[in-house]
Write a structure and sequence with these properties.
Elements (H helix, E strand, L loop, with lengths): L11 H14 L7 H14 L3 E5 L2 H14 L8 E5 L4 H9 L3 E5 L10 H8 L6 E5 L8 H11 L2 E5 L7 E2 L2 E2 L6 E5 L12 E5 L2 H11 L9 H10 L5 H4 L14 H10 L3 H20 L19 E5 L3 H13 L4 E2 L10 H4 L9 H9 E5 L6 H11 L2
Parallel strand pairs: 2-3, 2-4, 4-5, 5-8
Antiparallel strand pairs: 1-9, 6-7, 8-9, 10-12, 11-12
Helix pairs in contact: 1-10, 2-10, 3-4, 3-7, 11-15
């Protein structure tokens, strides 16, 4: 069988040995200096001023939206747009915060929200924020989307959990909005088993993220930030300050194991991205020769850090035929993330009304994907190629 992912880590055996040694020698497992070291290294790699580590990518999404509500940048009832092809934990926090979720259509040729999709939504919806998902290592024309949001005062957030390493001519994905989330789940570009990150260039946002991550207190802030908060709220006692809670928050803290694994796996990222892109190009050539399948457009992408390999078919019966081929060949497949999010049972309980999403509907009914990762062998690739030929 060719699974969606093979190993938990790059250099899997050595990573497990290193983890075992770390566990034996460390005297601390709760969030501490190793997590902070990983935050600094990841921020440098991503080219961001600040990085805040969480226990999962889903927690990172939740913390971003709670932070914006705590800061007064968003309030209950505000309309927040989201990519219609996405994961549940992008949409659920919008609802949990009391915001109004607005699905934005995706372009089947790129899998992503493009600037025209956003403009079409803005003709009828007054968005206060837009949470875009960079799907399967692809991305929309984020520089144009950023300009639209800037012109209209819309807060732009990115879910970059599936696109770590992807670059547009205007910059890396995950750097176009106020903040961006990343995931280090086992099947992602790099694994800390569970884990997530938010990157931002905004110091106030980073401060609030650290408050939201840990109970609402100030213990993980810089001394000058603690002094400002304590002065503002009249907290004069050092004794009471350790148990003073300033904002609505959660316990979303990672462990030192998360930080250690992040530092261990980060050096493999560039090599992994190169191999993923190489695999993708090999498989794409087969798709281009088969008129049953629709090749994806990525001319606007400078470096494609492929997360998985998408197969977009011309219609539903064709999708069923090729999906069966993959399953018969022992290749694990799945829908395009979770399909059109409007079709999910939880969403039906909270949406105002259905929004026409022809692009998302097309992908929902006519596409699927298989794994793409550095451990795919030449034999694996040829098996996949065989299933893609007409």
């Amino acid at each position: 069988m060719i699974p969606l992912q093979k190993n938990t880590f790059r250099d899997d055996v050595e990573a497990k040995k290193a983890l075992a040694e770390f566990i034996l020698r460390t005297d601390r497992f709760s969030m501490g200096p190793v997590c902070r070291e990983f935050e600094i290294a990841f921020a440098k790699k991503q080219g961001s001023k600040e990085a805040v580590l969480f226990n999962s990518g889903g927690s990172a999404n939740l913390a971003m939206l709670q932070s914006l509500k705590n800061m007064g940048a968003l309030k209950a009832g505000d309309k927040v747009g989201f990519s219609s092809i996405t994961w549940s934990t992008n949409v659920m926090p919008i609802i949990q915060m009391g915001f109004r979720p607005i699905a934005v259509d995706c372009d089947p040729r790129t899998l992503n929200v493009m600037s025209q999709n956003l403009l079409d939504t803005l003709k009828t919806k007054d968005l206060k924020a837009f949470f875009t998902t960079n799907v399967l290592g692809m991305a929309g024309n984020l520089d144009v989307i950023r300009d639209i949001c800037d012109e209209r005062g819309i807060i732009l957030l990115e879910d970059n959990c599936e696109a770590l390493g992807t670059e547009l001519p205007a910059g890396k994905t995950g750097t176009f909005g106020l903040a961006a989330s990343f995931s280090f789940f086992v099947a992602h570009h790099m694994s800390t088993i569970e884990g997530g990150m938010v990157c931002t260039d905004d110091e106030d946002m980073a401060e609030m993220l650290r408050i939201v991550r840990a109970n609402g207190w100030d213990r993980n802030l810089e001394p000058h930030q603690q002094t400002r908060l304590r002065t503002q709220h009249g907290v004069k006692s050092e004794f009471h300050s350790k148990y003073t809670f300033y904002h609505l928050a959660y316990n979303l803290r990672p462990t030192e194991i998360t930080g250690f694994l992040g530092l261990h796996q980060l050096p493999y990222l560039d090599e992994s991205t190169r191999k993923r892109e190489e695999n993708y190009e090999h498989l794409s050539r087969v798709i281009e020769a088969n008129d049953d399948l629709l090749p994806l457009e990525k001319e606007h992408i400078k470096l494609h850090s492929s997360f998985s390999f998408a197969i977009v078919c011309k219609d539903g019966p064709t999708r069923d035929t090729y999906a069966q081929r993959f399953m018969d060949a022992g290749i694990e497949i799945r829908p395009m993330i979770a399909g059109n999010m409007q079709e999910q049972p939880f969403y039906a309980q909270y949406k105002d009304s259905d929004i026409k999403l022809p692009g998302a509907d097309f992908l929902h009914h006519n596409s699927f994907y298989c794994g793409n990762y550095p451990e795919l062998t030449d034999e694996d690739l040829e098996t996949i190629c065989g299933c893609l030929k007409k």
